[in-house]
Design a protein that fits this description.
Elements: E1 11-22, H1 25-45, E2 48-59, E3 64-75, H2 78-92, E4 98-110, H3 128-155
Helix pairs in contact: 1-2
C-alpha cells in the first residue's frame, strides 16, 4: 500500500536566465515585477503567505549574490513582494551586467492562519480611522490580485499586461 502525504513547500520562487544581459535598474525592475507576479500567484494558488523574501542576482561573470529580508507581516501580495525585491536589488546590485534574476519566498504560513497585528504594523498611522483605511487598502489589493489570478487562469498569462511593461 502506497501512502501519499502532501509535502509542504518550504518556499516558493521563480528566476529567469535572461536572453540579453540586463544593464539598467529600469529593466531589472521590469523583470522583478514579472517574477513577483508569478511568485505571488503561486503563493495564492497554494493558499500560502510568506514571511521572507530573497533576491538572487547572477552576473554575466557567473558570480552569484543574494540577500533576504524578513517581512513585518506575512504576505502573498504581488506589490509587497515586488517592492521588497526592488529594495533588496538596490542593496545588492554592483552595476555589472546581470545574467539571471530570481525572487524566492520562504517561511510560509497558511493564508487562513490568524494574523496577530502589532502597533508597529501601522507605524506612522496617527489615528484609528487611518489604521482602518490602511487595512481596507491591503484587503482591496489582496482581492485585486486574486481577480487578476482568475483572469490569467481563464484567458492566459498574456490576458492582462501592466502598462509599464507594454512597449
Amino acid at each position: 500500500k502506497i501512502s501519499r502525504e502532501h509535502v509542504e513547500n518550504k518556499g516558493i520562487g521563480n528566476s529567469t536566465t535572461l536572453s540579453k544581459d540586463v544593464t539598467t535598474e529600469e529593466r531589472a525592475r521590469e523583470v522583478l515585477l514579472m517574477l513577483a507576479e508569478t511568485v505571488g500567484g503561486r503563493l495564492r494558488k497554494e493558499q500560502q503567505k510568506a514571511n521572507m523574501v530573497s533576491v538572487e542576482i547572477k552576473y554575466s561573470t557567473f558570480q552569484s549574490v543574494s540577500h533576504q529580508k524578513q517581512l513585518q507581516r506575512a504576505t502573498n501580495a504581488d506589490k509587497v513582494i515586488y517592492e521588497t525585491a526592488c529594495d533588496l536589488f538596490r542593496e545588492l546590485w554592483n552595476g555589472e551586467p546581470i545574467r539571471l534574476l530570481g525572487i524566492r519566498t520562504s517561511k510560509l504560513v497558511d493564508e487562513s492562519e490568524p494574523e496577530q497585528m502589532s502597533i508597529f504594523d501601522l507605524e506612522g498611522v496617527s489615528n484609528q480611522n487611518m489604521a482602518r483605511q490602511e487595512i481596507k487598502k491591503n484587503e482591496k489589493q489582496e482581492k485585486l490580485d486574486k481577480v487578476l489570478d482568475q483572469i490569467r487562469k481563464k484567458y492566459g498569462d498574456g490576458a492582462i499586461v501592466r502598462g509599464s511593461l507594454k512597449k
